[in-house]
Design a protein that fits this description.
heterodimer; A: OB fold (Dihydrolipoamide Acetyltransferase, E2P); three-stranded antiparallel sheet; globular; B: about 400 residues; alpha/beta; Peroxisomal Thiolase, Chain A, domain 1; nine-stranded mixed sheet; 11 strands; about 35% helix
């Protein structure tokens, strides 16, 4: 079950795709992290928020049939690794697309959607999904 | 460097793996522990340290402090020895063995026990799947619909595409697992499966179907480890741990260098072979972490038995009991079963049976040296042990 504060504190990243950029090597990180794994000490205090474009390509995808309870009503759904134009790869669903049109390398863009619902009366959680460009 | 003691496995035991509705977490742990103690020919008062291995007790069974629980119900609480739990997701088992090994290597302890247990069937269906998400990055994988099977499927699709590997190759590891498990009384699934049936099984996360995926299992396994001097003094026999190596990587699949190479396995294997002074050709059999068939393929490559993308060559050369590289003589994670926190210790139980020539029908001929490979989740931690020799 999602707790309200745990959902609320990630809204900037999940609603608006805000990444972290290392002020030292300029590499972009999503999900955001406070220390750059390449620059270590040199990056401390230099990780800056940076807006991602939401554009990327499919790295790989799967159609999930055996789904956790929070996703039971969405099954079968498409889960993908999306390589964003700015560099980072993230894990997200691809929606509103014909399964037969999916292919590694195809262009996708981020949309704002409902992600999951934690049971009856639970919090409805929102964030990014992707659609074929 | 100080001269440290060699470490031997002098006792081993496990429960049956499977859906054991009538057995509780603590009963399973105690049953395996007793078998290990009995096979070692020592008394519980000889044990100076206990590591409990378990991954999901806190979430599935609402029970933490598994170390104390095992010590208590094994009847040794009043011995007041240290008893704590080691957790590293599905690599908890090998992680606990490694900590026990280091405890003896350090000279602090002479005789250490590892008790590993997972009780998964107290939850059913999707409820269980919710808890499996804790093996991933909860906030950035599971939150968006990621499941362990889905993450494996992402690796599988790209692997099959980039190296033009047909699905049958992946499934041949599962078919081999079931074949070996049919000869293992402790295995969860003792039925053999055909390639046709495997190809047609229910879809889980495309391109992986049910026969690509290890099951939910209850089960426990336990070992007694001791120093060479303890073993000689007591006139006991044991199987030597020739090397132990561990390596770690990014938690989430999307952060890794590659989605079908486990760098953690590559590095752990390299260290394990180096420390043992052995090469891949010296290995008599391997127990690999095939929680999903694709991980079996990549394991063969990352452990150094094949070049990247060429695991199929190892499979084509043969992975059966009498073949050049017997894989998972126990039945592996697919068919012997996958009680998450116990599976790595179960691999040691099999290795001891094989090396001491007590594996019955599934005995690998001249089984002298075994390689054991245990992985956390999608590859965040890999642990490789090489056992046997001499």
């Amino acid at each position: 079950m999602g707790k309200l504060s745990a959902v609320w504190r990630e809204t900037n990243h999940r609603y608006r795709l805000v990444a972290h950029q290392c002020g030292n090597c300029k590499k972009m990180y999503f999900p955001p992290r406070d220390i750059c794994p390449d620059c270590h000490r040199e990056s401390i205090g230099k990780m800056k928020e940076k807006q991602l474009s939401g554009n990327g390509r499919i790295e790989s995808f799967t159609i999930v049939h055996d789904a956790p309870s929070a996703f039971a009503r969405q099954r079968p759904y498409v889960l993908a690794l999306v390589k964003l134009d700015e560099g980072p790869i993230l894990t997200a669903q691809i929606v509103d697309s014909d399964f037969s049109e999916l292919e590694a390398g195809k262009k996708v863009r981020a949309v704002f959607r409902k992600i999951r619902e934690d049971g009856k009366g639970g919090i409805i959680q929102y964030g990014y999904k992707f659609v074929l460009e | 460097m100080l001269l440290s003691e060699d470490v031997y496995i002098i006792g081993s035991g496990e429960t049956k793996f499977g859906e054991l509705w009538e057995r509780s977490l603590r009963e399973l742990a105690v049953e395996a522990g007793l078998r290990a103690i009995e096979s070692a020919g020592i008394y519980s008062k000889d044990v100076q340290l206990l590591y409990g291995s378990n991954s999901l007790g806190g979430t599935i069974n609402s029970q933490n402090d598994i170390g104390s629980l095992i010590a208590d119900f094994s009847g040794i609480a009043s011995n007041h020895i240290p008893a704590i739990r080691i957790e590293a997701s599905s690599a908890s088992g090998a992680a606990a063995v490694r900590e026990a090994y280091l405890g003896i290597k350090s000279g602090e302890y002479d005789c250490v026990m590892v008790g590993a247990v997972e009780k998964m069937t107290d939850l059913y269906g999707t409820e269980m799947l919710d808890h499996m998400g804790t093996l991933l990055d909860r906030e950035w994988e599971a939150f968006f619909g990621g499941t362990p099977a889905a993450m494996a499927a992402l690796s599988a699709r790209k692997y099959m595409l980039d190296f033009k590997v047909p699905k049958e190759k992946l499934l041949s590891i599962s078919v081999n697992d079931h074949n070996n498990a049919s000869m293992n009384p402790d295995a969860q699934y003792r039925n053999k499966i055909t390639m046709e049936a495997a190809m047609e099984s229910t879809m889980v996360a495309e391109p992986l179907n049910m026969m690509d995926c290890s099951p939910m299992s209850d089960g426990a396994a336990a070992l007694v480890l001791c120093s060479g001097s303890f073993m000689r003094k007591r006139k006991l026999e044991g199987v030597k741990i020739m090397s132990s190596a561990i390596s770690q990587d990014f938690l989430a699949l999307h952060s890794r260098r590659s989605i079908y190479t486990m760098d953690s396995t590559v590095l752990a294997a390299r260290t394990a072979f180096e420390k043992a002074g052995l090469k891949q050709k010296d290995i008599s059999f391997a127990e690999i972490h095939n929680s999903y068939s694709i991980y079996g393929m990549t394991a063969l490559e990352d452990l150094g038995f094949a070049e990247k993308g060429r695991a199929r060559d190892v499979i084509d050369a043969g992975i059966g009991l009498a073949d050049p590289l017997p894989i998972n003589p126990s039945g592996g994670l697919k068919a012997k079963g996958n009680p998450i926190g116990a599976v790595g210790v179960g691999q040691f139980v099999e290795a001891v049976s094989q090396i001491s020539g007590k594996a019955g029908q599934r005995q690998v001929k001249d089984a002298r040296i075994g390689l054991l490979h245990n992985v956390a989740g999608t590859g965040s931690t890999s642990i490789v042990h090489i056992v046997g020799g001499a």
